């Protein structure tokens, strides 16, 4: 379940310098050149500066494409919409939607960590567990805005064009409903995993920084695919397939494009890297 928890909380990834490679690829078809960057949505202060390959791709590009509208996702109105959607509409609390065992484990974790469960018990499991994971990571200094926000802010400053692959409402729906249908398992595995979340993050950080696709697949994707194929399809493969025609369309743009998405979307047999190769692209790591 570790890949599920980390994918949710970082909605994905990130440590020390690991060599002359990183999670950035140059993708070409004919005379068209684009760049594809695997991102971490939250970071530590020690993760900066980012690997230089990201800056190289950024400087070479005129258009930056993110998963969604980064400015809108930060808007207070959007955050309120997320909170409203993540709250039980009928006014019920999470204990009414979990088994006694799952709720007991959640309650014990909150008590051990000084978190008043009563203050958040109207939230559905996906957002509640995401929030708890982010709190746990913050204890280890994982509290900085990630790659997406860094380059979005830079693009606005440099007056570069920006675009998104999906709407903010679509992202909210993915986040809020990901635990639907398997709430008990989601909560119990996540609580168990919380004990090692800092170590998991460090391992993911090293793999992300090195662009180690095999390790990233192992840590983030393979476990989710095996344990929860429906959720894997919903969070990874369906979205990748939705994005592919759009990414392919950017090759027709006169602007060199840098596409930045969570690194879990890039790796593994169903990842964007393999899919782009099947579409005739030459893919090379920077």
Structure in words:
- The protein is α/β, with parallel strands linked by helices and about 290 residues long.
- The protein has one domain.
- It is about 50% helix and about 15% strand.
- It has helices spanning about 1-10, 50-60, 70-75, 75-85, 100-110, 125-140, 145-155, 170-175, 185-195, 195-210, 215-225, 230-250, 270-280; strands at about 25-30, 30-40, 40-45, 65, 140-145, 160-165, 255-260, 280-285.
- Strands 6-4-7-2-1-8 form a six-stranded mixed sheet, sandwiched between helices. The chain has a two-stranded antiparallel ribbon with strand order 3-5.
- A hairpin with a 2-residue loop joins β1 and β2 (about 30-40).
- α1 crosses α6 and α1 packs across α11 (about 215-225).
- It is globular.
- It starts with a helix and ends with a strand.
- Give the CA-based shape: globular
Strand content: 5-15%
| Order of H and E elements | HEEEHEHHHHEHEHHHHHEHE
For the record, the count of structural domains works out to 1
Low-confidence stretches: 1-20
The main sheet orders its strands as 6-4-7-2-1-8
Measured distance between first and last alpha carbons: 31 Å
The largest pleated sheet is described as: 6 strands, mixed
Helix coverage percent of residues?
40-55%
Provide a count of the helices: 13
Average pLDDT figure: 87
